[in-house]
């Protein structure tokens, strides 16, 4: 077995100047280096040459859309996607001997990176009460244990079934079907912590919780906003789409608290100009905004557009669109005209001239797209911010036309598909009615718990059973100490996983690890070799088929695990053909085709190159809101106020990271090497705070509940963050976010708005700053 590279981070920090461009030849080199550390050249080649190709593996790294068949590059993947897929294909294995040698207590002290580097899980494991070690358990005994525990609950609502976006459509459908047949809507998922604000805002204003943009729209827009997102790290293939838009004449406005290398310049390694040339400048304009200032920015733009219409009646706003398709314009206009410029400039940290220059860009553009990510959603006012973006788009009719629209960029490969398949604690009655008609049982109608409320319920003893389909719930959730205590309060916790993570070390009284096939692996069932399907951010559903030999003969697929658990737990009531579903995933898709609108004739249509484009009512001129029209909204906000000597901290991912798991301790685009325990602070703020480069500090969270939340021993790095704002890596700083600090309406944790003070750490000095 190869020795895991890196091991525990040694906090040997070296800082170099941030990069001014992204990708290029170094991205190819780093991708291959990491891939070949993990697995063989043959497996690396098989994975990379089939990734995102028709009939191949859908990259689990993000949910960005693929170009149409015939327009895909032979190497249709990015650096991070290559690392992720070969990280899954690693030749390293975690066996029963590993768990015999390492106690749960010992593993809990290891880093996310170290645990991931140990390799693939190979057999089911159980940790019994009073034991500090996992030990092997047969699949039959594992299912018996799970079913016995579920059937001993006083109520089905004492169970929670969590889902990560890496699950396939088929697995997600089976999970929600099992949970509802069992009797609960407790179906939290990772979207609760990432894009829940997008879903609520879009559903309220447009009648659909999904974005309205296709790759074609992005390629042919005149103006593209990138708000609170970093494509170069979190969804790098978006840079190729932005490059194409730029070549077609688009302008791009980046709105961010930090300058990001990919938005400065992109060197596409698939093209000569990206290898030997200068590449393409992506952002024509960079608005260095304060954290949380996006709502104020878009209200100011909307006020300026109304004033431009006053000066040139009939030449600025799209009155035909507003009159035919919207409601609430007058109330919105009255509200936004009263926005105070002083408040806007304080909230954004921008100048009025900068905002007026953006207005001029808008007025010169017939087709506008606004993209956003968690820099927008993870604020207390995330929902109002996205509603204000919708107001902005509606003013000039930038919805439902080619080259226009709203584009929430989701970072997980099938998180949108999970929702389409019914993984949501608040699914509408239309979906539940369809389940009832198809399967002959009445699903529960009361809303279940989301991620935050599931933690509250576990803490209070109202939930006693927790099952996770993929993911690393404990590290992704807020308020780490509270979340861990809540999980330990359960009678049983179980995780369906491919690799080891820290959630496996935070155990209920009894804990199970259920190892599953990865997306790269061949899935052979009684009905033959299977494929699964996924849905990307742009509502395209297509196939994914693994090519590699499974990491262990004892692995079961996600679908097989869930079907066997459902069969054992429900004992034939209601009458659902779990055996047939496990044997042939086409049987699952047949049922989905009669339940989910747009997926009729699912099996035949998804097999076509390119798959199925799900309909979006907005692009058909339909707005299925309560009033049948798109809604203008009034959105209030408060100017962010920080006590003297405090900063507004946002959590973020490093470049060498996928979700909660870092692959290395480096973030080379930001110039951070060798350590993740850093806090990025504007040099002027460091001077005001009396802190110095390389100094070690504790991050102290300041909240109204008075609790003392801290993350200890972080090294200060001067960085061009917005004034008054700082940044540090996730999940190391998740413990600073209180469980009760959530976005209004969506209940999403506010990981981008953490008020902190930096207190010098005792007896520490700086390390090398190269």
Explain the overall architecture.
Strand 25 and strand 26 (661-662) form a beta hairpin. The chain is of the alpha/beta class and 770 residues long. The chain contains 31 helices and 32 strands. Helix 9 crosses helix 21, helix 15 (294-311) crosses helix 19 and helix 15 packs parallel to helix 21. The chain is globular and about 75 Å long. Mean pLDDT is 93; it is low at 1-9 and 765-770. The chain is 35% helix and 16% strand. The longest helix is centred in the middle third of the chain and has 18 residues, at 294-311. It has 4 domains: 19-88, no CATH class; 121-180 and 429-516 and 556-600, Rossmann fold (3-Layer(aba) Sandwich); 196-408, Dimethylsulfoxide Reductase, domain 2 (3-Layer(aba) Sandwich), CATH 3.40.228.10; 647-760, Barwin-like endoglucanases (Beta Barrel).
């Amino acid at each position: 077995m190869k020795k895991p590279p890196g091991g525990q981070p040694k906090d040997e920090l070296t800082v170099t100047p941030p990069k001014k461009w992204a990708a290029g030849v170094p991205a190819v080199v780093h991708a291959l280096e990491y891939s070949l550390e993990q697995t063989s050249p043959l497996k690396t080649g098989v994975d990379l040459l089939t990734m995102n190709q028709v009939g191949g593996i859908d990259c689990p790294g993000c949910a960005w859309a693929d170009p149409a068949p015939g327009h895909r590059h032979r190497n249709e993947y990015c650096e991070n996607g290559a690392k992720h897929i070969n990280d899954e294909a690693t030749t390293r294995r975690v066996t029963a001997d590993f768990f015999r040698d390492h106690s749960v207590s010992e593993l809990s002290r290891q880093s996310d990176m170290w645990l991931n580097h140990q390799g693939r899980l190979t057999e089911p494991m159980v940790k019994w009460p009073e034991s500090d070690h996992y030990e092997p358990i047969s699949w039959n005994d594992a299912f018996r244990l799970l079913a016995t525990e579920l059937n001993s609950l006083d109520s089905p609502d004492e169970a929670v079934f969590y889902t990560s976006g890496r699950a396939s459509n088929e697995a997600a459908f089976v999970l929600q079907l099992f949970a509802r047949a069992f009797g609960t809507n407790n179906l939290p998922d990772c979207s609760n912590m990432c894009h829940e604000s997008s879903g609520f805002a879009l559903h309220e204003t447009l009648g659909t919780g999904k974005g309205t943009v296709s790759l074609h729209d992005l390629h042919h827009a005149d103006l593209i906003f990138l708000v609170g997102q970093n494509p170069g790290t979190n969804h790098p293939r978006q840079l190729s789409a932005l490059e194409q838009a730029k070549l077609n004449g688009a302008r791009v406005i980046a709105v961010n608290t930090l300058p990001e290398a990919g938005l400065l310049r992109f060197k596409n390694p698939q093209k000569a100009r990206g290898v030997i040339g200068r590449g393409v400048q992506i952002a024509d304009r960079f608005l260095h905004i304060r954290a949380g200032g996006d709502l104020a920015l878009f209200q100011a733009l909307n006020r300026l557009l109304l004033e431009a219409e006053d000066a040139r009646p009939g030449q600025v706003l799209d009155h035909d669109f507003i009159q035919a398709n919207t409601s609430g314009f007058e109330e919105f206009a009255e509200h936004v005209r009263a926005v105070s410029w002083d408040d806007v400039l304080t909230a954004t940290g921008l100048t009025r001239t900068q905002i007026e220059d953006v207005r001029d860009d808008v007025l010169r553009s017939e087709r506008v797209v606004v993209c956003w990510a968690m820099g927008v959603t993870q604020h207390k006012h995330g929902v109002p911010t996205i509603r204000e973006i919708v107001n902005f788009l509606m003013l000039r009719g930038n919805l439902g036309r080619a080259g226009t629209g709203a584009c929430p960029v989701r970072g997980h490969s099938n998180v949108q598909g999970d929702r389409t398949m019914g993984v949501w604690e608040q699914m509408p009655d239309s979906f539940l009615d369809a389940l009832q008609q198809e399967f002959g049982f009445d699903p529960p109608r009361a809303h279940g718990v989301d991620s935050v409320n599931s933690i509250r319920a576990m803490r209070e003893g109202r939930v006693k059973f927790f099952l996770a389909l993929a993911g690393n719930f404990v590290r992704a959730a807020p308020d780490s100490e509270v979340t861990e205590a809540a999980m330990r309060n359960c009678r049983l916790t179980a995780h369906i996983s491919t690799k080891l993570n820290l959630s496996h070390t935070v155990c209920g009284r009894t804990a199970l690890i259920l190892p599953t096939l990865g997306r790269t692996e061949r899935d052979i069932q009684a009905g033959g070799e299977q494929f699964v399907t996924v849905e990307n951010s742009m509502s395209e559903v297509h196939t994914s088929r693994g090519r590699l030999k499974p990491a262990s003969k004892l692995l079961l697929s996600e679908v097989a695990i869930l079907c066997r658990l459902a069969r054992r737990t429900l004992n034939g009531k209601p009458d659902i053909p779990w055996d047939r579903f496990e044997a042939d995933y086409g049987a699952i898709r047949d049922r989905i085709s009669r339940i989910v609108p747009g997926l009729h004739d699912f099996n035949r249509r998804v097999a076509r190159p390119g798959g199925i484009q799900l309909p979006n009512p907005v692009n058909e001129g339909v707005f299925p809101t309560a009033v049948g029209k798109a809604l203008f909204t009034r959105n209030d906000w408060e100017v962010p106020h920080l006590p003297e000597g405090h900063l507004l901290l946002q959590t973020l991912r490093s470049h060498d990271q996928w979700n909660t798991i870092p692959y290395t301790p480096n973030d080379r685009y930001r110039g951070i090497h060798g350590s993740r325990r850093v806090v990025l602070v504007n040099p002027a703020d460091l001077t005001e705070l009396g802190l110095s480069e390389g100094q070690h500090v504790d991050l102290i969270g300041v909240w109204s509940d008075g609790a003392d939340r801290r993350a200890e021993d972080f090294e200060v790095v001067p960085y061009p963050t917005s004034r008054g704002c700082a940044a540090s890596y996730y999940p190391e700083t998740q413990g600073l976010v209180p469980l009760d600090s959530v976005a209004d309406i969506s209940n999403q944790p506010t990981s981008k708005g953490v008020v902190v003070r930096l207190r010098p750490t005792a007896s520490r000095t700086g390390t090398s700053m190269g």
